[in-house]
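Morning. Coffee machine broken again, so started the prediction first thing and wrote up yesterday's gels while waiting. Chain of 75 residues, entered below exactly as on the submission form.
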Amino acid sequence: MQVFEDYNLKVKKTFNATSNEEVLTVSEAGQRLGLSKDQMKDYVDRNKLTKVSIARSVHRYLLLKSEIDQIVHPK
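Came back before lunch.
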């Protein structure tokens, strides 16, 4: 039996394997900040966080883990 893998997680896994910059899905970033996925999308737009585009999709993107870490653990 095949296990369903979320498309965003699949793209994240591929991106992290081929890049030196680690990324998170919108849902994962929201969980770190205690926000829902929709609240996180609003937060990203309001605070102009970097969106890593996913090919062939206008509405899907990943977020830089380093930016989220700076928000969660400011220096």
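The first helix runs from residue 7 to 18. Going to sketch it on the whiteboard this afternoon.
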